[in-house]
Amino acid sequence: MQRLFDVIFSGLALLLLSPLLVPLMILLRLTGEGEIFFVQQRVGLNGQPFGLLKLATMLKNSPNIGTGTVTVKGDPRVLPVGKFLRKTKLNELPQLINILKGDMSLIGPRPQTQRCFDAFSKVVQAQIVKVRPGLSGIGSIVFRDEENLLHGHEQQERYYDVVIAPYKGALEEWYVANQGLRTYFLLIVLTVWVVLLPKSTVVWRVFGNLPSPPLELAAAFGI
């Protein structure tokens, strides 16, 4: 049933959003490095890699510059138009095509690069590859401000591996254990809610059994 809803919702979204996507594609073609799409290999269902689609927001060679696949606040690799696209999450819209293809679902664990996937424990890795990765999900909602969380830490990659990745992995593991149509639709609604109200902590009230974050993250989340 979730796959059926994925196809229906992603198809409708592409149809309705095409008047927005076309101007954005033209704008990207005329600015920055002239690239429209960015394709990056991510870990998908059953651990198989797939090409995740995004609107281009960073320099072409960004994975080999600076912090690699970890993006931080004020990252100099982000192009001028890219800042707006990333803030509004519009750069993620081409992933609706990934959903139609069956690479992804609307809701699921966020697909990770191999480097970030390897930061999870083996137990978490084994769980999250059981389901299709998602355009949004509990990890995406809770860590919607991840770039700001990394900001100010001298060893940003280490902070990601030691603090962020373990809790993000626990959230994705929670999703696999609690997946179902109720969770699916609640997370769709919550995704829209936090885009409109990014400081909201409503997710903690909707899902009272979420894994508790470490104190350092709890303060950042405002809970």
Task: Describe the SSE topology.
Blueprint: H1 2-30, E1 37-43, E2 49-55, H2 80-88, H3 95-101, E3 105-107, H4 114-117, H5 122-128, E4 134-136, H6 138-142, H7 146-150, H8 156-178, H9 181-196, H10 202-206, H11 215-221
Parallel strand pairs: 3-4
Antiparallel strand pairs: 1-2
Helix pairs in contact: 1-3, 5-8
Helix content: 40-55%
Give me the number of helical elements.
Answer: 11
Query: Order of strands across the biggest sheet?
Result: 1-2
Structural class: mainly alpha
For the sheet with most strands, the description reads: 2 strands, antiparallel
Question: What does the model show?
Answer:
With 223 residues, this protein is mainly alpha-helical. Helix content is 52%, strand content 9%. It contains eleven helices and four strands. The chain has helices at residues 2-30, 80-88, 95-101, 114-117, 122-128, 138-142, 146-150, 156-178, 181-196, 202-206, 215-221, and strands at residues 37-43, 49-55, 105-107, 134-136. A two-stranded antiparallel sheet has the order 1-2. The protein has a two-stranded parallel ribbon with strand order 3-4. A hairpin with a 5-residue loop joins strand 1 and strand 2 (49-55). Helix 1 runs antiparallel to helix 3 (95-101) and helix 5 crosses helix 8. The longest helix has 29 residues, at 2-30. The protein is globular and about 45 Å long. The termini are far apart. The mean pLDDT is 89.
